[in-house]
């Protein structure tokens, strides 16, 4: 287990996986002619799916950390949250680039703005770019830890926009999107349920301790009067 945790926590492991996904699903098929009759369309769809699944991966890490606080594997994977989030943005920008090429250039891009799903995708990608550019220590110091955390909660907004973008982009896309949406929703609900339960137990414990102190004080006062 120690060896596995060390491997998972290593930056080289994260880099290999995050870059390897792109090589496996984009680069190798492009050079081996396995992209079908319309390679650009295939690259467009594949890069978009990689981006949204990468974003899903980083959003799953926080609830997993709450649900399994003693898991060394989860702790090791959480060390790469920032890198995974930035990678989701990079694949999103790659997806946008393929879209521009697919539409035939900037003029085609402007024409494609008549499609509602494009606006949802653009809004989600804009948020990811903002979060990626502030994923550094300088931004944390400049914004302050509390403000930085509030800003990066926009990742959930980006996820909602991009999931909807994916769901309405074309026929059959919802069948893919739901495999990301439902597990993420289940993890968040489980996280909130556990957090709420822990808070209730802590409140109950504080009330019991307070009552005990009051009773002890009363007993001490009665003993002193006697």
Describe the structure.
The protein has 226 residues and is mostly helical. The protein has one domain (2-225). The chain is built from eleven helices and no strands. The protein has helices at residues 2-9, 11-32, 39-67, 72-78, 81-102, 106-112, 116-133, 137-143, 145-152, 154-168, 173-225. α1 (2-9) packs parallel to α4.
Entry summary:
The chain is an all-alpha fold and 226 residues long. The chain has helices spanning 2-9, 11-32, 39-67, 72-78, 81-102, 106-112, 116-133, 137-143, 145-152, 154-168, 173-225.
Characterize the largest beta sheet: strand count, sense, and whether it forms a barrel.
none
Low-confidence stretches: none
Mean pLDDT: 90
Report the structural category.
Answer: mainly alpha
Radius of gyration: 24 Å
Q: Which shape, going by the Cα principal axes? A: elongated
Which percent bin holds the helix content? Answer: over 70%
Helix-strand pattern: HHHHHHHHHHH
Number of discrete helical segments: 11
- Cα(first) to Cα(last) distance is 62 Å
When the domains are counted, the total is 1
**Proportion of strand residues:** under 5%
Beta-strand segment tally: 0
Features:
0% strand, elongated, 226 residues, mainly alpha
Set down the secondary structure blueprint.
Layout: H1 2-9, H2 11-32, H3 39-67, H4 72-78, H5 81-102, H6 106-112, H7 116-133, H8 137-143, H9 145-152, H10 154-168, H11 173-225
């Amino acid at each position: 287990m120690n060896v596995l945790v060390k491997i998972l926590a290593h930056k080289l492991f994260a880099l290999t996986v995050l870059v390897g996904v792109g090589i496996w699903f984009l680069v190798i098929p492009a050079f081996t002619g396995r992209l079908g009759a319309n390679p650009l369309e295939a690259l467009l769809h594949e890069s978009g799916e990689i981006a949204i699944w990468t974003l899903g991966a980083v959003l799953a890490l926080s609830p997993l950390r709450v649900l399994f606080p003693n898991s060394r594997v989860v702790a090791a994977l959480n060390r790469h949250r920032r890198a995974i989030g930035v990678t989701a943005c990079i694949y999103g920008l790659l997806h946008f680039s393929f879209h521009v090429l697919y539409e035939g250039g900037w003029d085609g891009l402007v024409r494609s703005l008549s499609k509602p799903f494009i606006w949802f995708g653009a809004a989600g990608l804009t948020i990811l770019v903002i979060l990626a550019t502030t994923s550094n220590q300088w931004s944390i110091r400049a914004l302050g830890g509390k403000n930085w955390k509030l800003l990066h909660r926009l990742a959930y907004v980006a996820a909602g926009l991009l999931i909807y973008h994916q769901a309405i982009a074309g026929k059959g896309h919802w069948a893919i999107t739901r495999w990301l949406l439902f597990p993420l929703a289940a993890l968040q609900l489980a996280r909130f349920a556990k957090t709420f339960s822990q808070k209730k137990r802590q409140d109950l414990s504080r009330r019991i301790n307070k009552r005990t102190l009051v009773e002890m004080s009363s007993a001490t006062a009665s003993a002193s009067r006697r």
